[in-house]
Amino acid sequence: MLTTCESGNPPPVTVPVSSALFLPLPSISVFSDPRTSPMEDDRLNSPSTSVVTLEVLGHRLQLSQDPNSKHLGTTVWDASMVFVKFLEKNCRKGRFCPSKLKGKRAIELGAGCGLAGLGMALLGSNVISTDQTEVLPLLMRNVERNTSRMMQANPDSGLAASFGSIEVAELDWGNEDHIKAVDPPFDYIIGTDIVYAEHLLEPLLQTILALSGPRTVILLGYEIRSTMVHERMMDMWKQNFVVKTIPKAKMDSKYRHPSIQLFTMEVKDQSRYRNPGPTANQIPESSRGSDKDGQSCEAEDARDATASENIMDLEPGKIDDWEIRRLGSMAARLLREVKIT
Ligand SMILES: C[S@@+](CC[C@H](N)C(=O)[O-])C[C@H]1O[C@@H](n2cnc3c(N)ncnc32)[C@H](O)[C@@H]1O
């Protein structure tokens, strides 16, 4: 049985899977049993659960979140919105169009509520969305509900054919058993807002290296909150990958912000793989993205990133959800700096 309502909405409607899903459902499974995790179902249905909605690639995604939990993964973070809106803007041609992503294996690290992985699956990739065990129940719920809702809302649109698949798995960075269980290497490794603490940089890097092969493309998006962590991360990554900053001009005109950056990375030292297949230079340009696509605008973006929060040009009575989110983020940052004596 699947329930198809969020708390705060009308009472849940229980829909038998067999009669509701008249289209082939994309594959959804979970590698670890979320019922054994500390986040119980009660918590999922508590009044503190709210719903974030976002239109992505013509579908209205609804993500349950629980910002009051003690875990960062139960909130939808802004970088994930910037990430999916970037995919949406750049999927008509080039390296992110469905013909390039169809059937490609992608893994999302630190998926949280799962928005970025859903975006990749909508473009045809077969995604494994991963996180720590505490986050899996909410992640699983978001994946299940959004896929079944979209399939029911679009019975004739060809969505069943264009959608890839999405699975949920436990993956704690650095855990060799978890890494082995997802069967690397992947064509794409994605992650949003997973770089925020210095002690996580090394396990994250080692996990990305263990999941990648010679042709893997890594796509990361995150909000710079600490210059120190950002610089340390860039040093570590540049030793292992060719890192390109995605120019702000390539992002959605609304879902972008000076402190949120997106990066593509490709493995530098391909000799680390025993059977590397074609080298970076032999990989067709079409599947690696053109220079123009990956063009680094580091000077421009460095200026952006170090700039203070941009002053928004707000029209009274016309503040939208994104502006409210960014104002909230600015307020939280200011409050952190207030010292109560
Ligand atoms: C700031 S949240 C971002 C969540 C989501 N990607 C988003 O953008 O909304 C950071 C995520 O990284 C995950 N994370 C942190 N440390 C981790 C670790 N050692 N192994 C796996 N995931 C981890 C958290 O569980 C959380 O989901």
From TrEMBL:
Disordered, as annotated region: 267-312
Domain of life: Eukaryota
Bias (Polar residues): 278-287
Biased composition (Basic and acidic residues): 288-306
Protein name: Protein N-lysine methyltransferase METTL21A
UniProt organism field: Ensete ventricosum
